[in-house]
Each structure stands twice: as structure tokens, then as C-alpha cells.
TrEMBL record:
Organism taxonomic ancestry: Bacteria, Pseudomonadati, Pseudomonadota, Alphaproteobacteria, Sphingomonadales
Family from the record: Belongs to the citrate synthase family.
Protein known as: Citrate synthase
Zinc keyword on record: no
Transmembrane segments: 328-350
InterPro entries found in the cross-reference section: Citrate_synth-like_lrg_a-sub, Citrate_synth-like_sm_a-sub, Citrate_synthase, Citrate_synthase_AS, Citrate_synthase_bac-typ, Citrate_synthase_sf, Citrate_synthase_typ-I
Catalyzed reaction equations: oxaloacetate + acetyl-CoA + H2O = citrate + CoA + H(+)
Cross-referenced SUPFAM superfamilies: Citrate synthase
């Protein structure tokens, strides 16, 4: 009882949403996309097939797979005037700042896919977003380094097209390394959906108001950018680089355990996983594979593995059930492919756009859907009368 106001002490703030898309068991470290274990999909599938699965609920037949691939591929180009938007940004703008703006701006161009009540327009918007995210992301990178944009090449895979638009130049052919392409596919699969995480909840909440899909995805990109969420991959690699050598790990472990120090081990801990994030297990293997196959060593990967070993044997992390999450090793993979840290969360957004769209579609197809309105527990002052300025002392 807070004076004149009372609130229902039985009120629970755990407003849950119902979904058939992704299942997580945080205690067991289990992650299923429409019932399929994430490690099997990462090992055996490809990103567009996983996108079809998340959107439609089942793995596609061969004809469905080919048709879906064609539908997505034919949307990879962007409106020429949308490309002009990039010239308004500073060259040193963070690519996530560009992605927030440019994806939201898609609503200013694709007027034939903003009517959320038209199922066909929802599908076209979904395909446009999934298809254009890599093109827009590659353009953000090219713009930051002063190189010309490359148009998509629809004869390539989803991952291959993105790699070529990002690292290719008009002056010479770009040869896609199958090792890099495979690592890129796995990276995209592992980050595609994750139940009701912060950015997916943001997309659902924006969508529940009837906002157009481009605006909703732009809101999701903004939320993902935070270092406690998708921005952790950039922060984790920067942390590993700051540690630099294994002998400095104890200093950072001590800081992470010090309650008076706001520092946290980036890429460690999770709102739901109180066991090893199954994506981190696969990501660690992808990191080792790509470095081995490219014949490279990366001291950062060695630091990451030593840090993981020390933390997982430290009572503080054991007691608090803190394990590596998806962001701990993903930076090593993206760095090995050649991306700067500023592009890490952009890649996460390319992948998670599929999950956001699947979750948004599931919500829009629910006839009972109402606008979201998170509840609050009021803890402010009870009612009081206004006091004029000259009477306030
Ligand atoms: C993602 O939700 C999702 O599914 C997100 C995501 C997805 O795919 O969408 O999985 C992607 O965002 C992964 C998380 C990426 N973020 C980071 O790696 C940033 C570092 N991690 C922390 O900021 C933290 O672990 C969070 C934000 C992820 C979770 O924070 P919580 O909910 O506070 O974690 P918790 O309740 O399990 O913490 C228990 C204790 C707390 O201490 P006490 O209050 O009990 O004293 O552990 C501490 C926390 O302070 N703790 C850490 C820590 N993470 C939690 N201490 C040191 N280092 C850490 N990384």
C-alpha cells in the first residue's frame, strides 16, 4: 500500500508472449529453431534455408527452397535515390547509425509494401528487408572507406553476394574463398533468432502499434546496437584486444568481479542462459576452423580461449552461472573474415533481421493482437496539491 493508492501485490510483470518460432532452455543450454537444434542447422543448412524455416515453420522442399531463394535474390538491389542518402552521412559515422537511418528510410521508397493489413504487402516487405540488409550494410562499409558501391551479383549465394559487395572492387574480380563463405553462412545462421530478446521485443512492440515493417526493423537495429545486447560483439573484441596477452587476464577478471567497477566481461553472461550458450560452442569451433583453414593464428583467439578457461574455473563465474555467449567468439570470426569491429553489430543485424521479420509476421497474423502496453508498478508520490512558486521558499 503506497498511501492512498494501492496496487495488486499479486501483479506479475512477466508479461509473456506466445510464439512457435524459437525455443530456449537456459539451464540446459538448448536452442531450437522451429524444433531443429542450432548446431545441426549451423552444420548442415544454409542461411536462406534457415530463413525459410523461421518464416514458414518447416524446412523447404527443393522447389520451395529454389523459389524462396529466387524471391529473396531478386530484391537485393536498392532504389537509386536511397543510395543518395549515404552521401548525407559523415564518412566516420558508425555503420549502425547509418543502418538505423537507411532501413527506416525504406518506408519513404517502397510504398507498395507498407500496408501491414495486406498479407501480400507484408510478404513483399519481408523479402525486401531480408534481401536488402546485406546490400545496405555493404554500402555503409564502402562509404566509410571511400570506395565505390558494388551492385549485387545474383548468381552468388546470400553470403557470397554480401562478401563481394563488401570486399570486392570494380577494378578486379572478387574471388570468394569457400572457407570464408562457409564461416559467413554459419555466423548468419547462429544469430538469426533468439526468442524474445530485447531487440525482437522492440520490433514486436513497434509492430503492435501498426507501424510499418521498415520502421519496426529500424527500431530493432537501434536496440541491438546497445553493448549489453548485439553491440557486445564489438565490445568483446575491443576488450580482448585491450587485454592483449594472457598474462593480463587476471587483471580483467578481478575488475569484472569488483562490484565497485562497472566493467563486465563482454561476451559473458546472459539473461536466459545459465549454462554454456550453444551458439558460443559452435562459434568457437567456427573461429578455430577459419583460422586453421586460412593458415592464420590470431593472438586474440588465444586470449579468448584462455580467458574462457580461467573464468569457467573461477568460483565467482561458476556461482553466478556466467558462461560465454554468442558474442564472445563471433568477433574472432568476423575479424578473421576481414570486417572492422564497427561492422560486427551490422552483421548481427543482417542475420537477426530474419528473426525480427519472422516474429513480427507471427504477431501480425494473430487476429487477437492488440497494441503492447508494458505494465508498471507505481512507486512515486501519492496525490498532492500544487504550491505556487512564491510559496515554495
Ligand atoms: C545478447 O536476450 C538475448 O537473447 C540476447 C542475445 C540474442 O541473441 O538476442 O543472446 C544476444 O545480447 C547476448 C548478451 C551480450 N551482452 C554481453 O555480453 C554484455 C556482458 N554481459 C552482461 O552485461 C550481462 O551478462 C547481461 C546484460 C547479458 C545480462 O545481465 P544480467 O541479467 O544482469 O545478468 P545476470 O542476472 O545473470 O547477472 C548475475 C550476476 C550479477 O551480479 P549480482 O547482481 O548477482 O551481484 O552476474 C553479474 C551481474 O552483475 N554479471 C557479470 C556479467 N554478467 C553478469 N559480471 C561480470 N561480467 C559479466 N559479463
Amino acid at each position: 500500500n503506497t498511501g492512498r493508492f494501492t496496487y495488486d501485490p499479486g501483479f506479475t510483470s512477466t508479461a509473456a508472449c506466445e510464439s512457435k518460432i524459437t525455443y530456449i532452455d537456459g539451464d540446459q543450454g538448448i536452442l531450437l529453431y522451429r524444433g531443429y537444434p542450432i548446431d545441426q542447422l549451423a552444420e548442415k543448412s544454409n542461411f536462406l534455408e534457415v530463413a525459410y524455416l523461421l518464416l514458414n515453420g518447416d524446412l523447404p522442399s527443393k522447389p520451395d527452397h529454389d523459389e524462396f531463394t529466387h524471391l529473396i535474390t531478386r530484391h537485393t538491389m536498392i532504389h537509386e535515390q536511397l543510395a543518395q542518402f549515404y552521401r548525407g552521412f559523415r564518412r566516420d559515422a558508425h555503420p549502425m547509425a547509418i543502418m538505423c537511418g537507411i532501413v527506416g528510410a525504406m518506408a519513404a521508397f517502397y510504398h507498395d509494401s507498407t500496408d501491414i493489413h495486406d498479407p501480400q504487402q507484408r510478404v513483399i516487405a519481408s523479402h525486401r528487408i531480408i534481401a536488402k540488409m546485406p546490400t545496405l550494410a555493404a554500402m555503409a562499409y564502402k562509404y566509410s572507406i571511400g570506395q565505390p558501391f558494388l551492385y549485387p551479383d545474383n548468381s552468388l549465394s546470400f553470403a557470397g553476394n554480401f562478401l563481394r559487395m563488401t570486399f570486392g572492387v570494380p577494378a578486379e574480380p572478387y574471388v570468394i574463398d569457400p572457407v570464408v563463405e562457409d564461416a559467413m553462412e554459419k555466423l548468419l545462421i547462429l544469430q538469426a533468432d533468439h526468442e524474445q530478446n530485447a531487440s525482437t521485443s522492440t520490433v514486436r512492440l513497434a509492430g503492435s502499434s501498426g507501424a510499418n515493417p521498415f520502421a519496426c526493423i529500424s527500431a530493432g537495429i537501434a536496440c541491438l546496437w546497445g553493448p549489453a545486447h548485439g553491440g557486445a560483439n564489438e565490445a568483446a573484441l575491443n576488450m580482448l584486444r585491450e587485454i592483449g596477452t594472457p598474462d593480463r587476464i587476471p587483471e580483467f577478471i578481478a575488475r569484472a568481479k569488483n562490484k565497485d567497477d562497472p566493467f563486465r566481461l563482454m561476451g559473458f553472461g546472459h539473461r536466459v542462459y545459465k549454462n554454456y550458450d550453444p551458439r558460443a560452442k559452435v562459434m568457437s569451433k567456427v573461429a578455430k576452423d577459419i583460422l586453421d583453414k586460412l593458415g592464420r593464428s590470431d593472438p586474440i583467439f588465444d586470449v579468448a580461449r584462455e580467458l574462457e578457461h580461467i573464468a569457467l574455473n573461477d568460483p565467482y563465474f561458476i556461482d553466478k552461472k556466467l558462461y560465454p555467449n554468442v558474442d564472445f567468439y563471433s568477433g574472432v570470426v568476423m575479424s578473421a573474415i576481414g570486417f572492422p569491429t564497427s561492422m560486427f553489430t551490422v552483421l548481427f543485424a543482417i542475420s537477426r533481421a530474419v528473426g525480427w521479420i519472422a516474429q513480427w509476421t507471427e504477431m501480425m497474423e494473430d487476429p487477437e493482437q492488440k497494441i503492447g502496453r508494458p505494465r508498471q508498478l507505481y512507486t512515486g508520490p501519492t496525490q498532492r496539491d500544487f504550491v505556487p512558486l512564491n510559496a515554495r521558499g
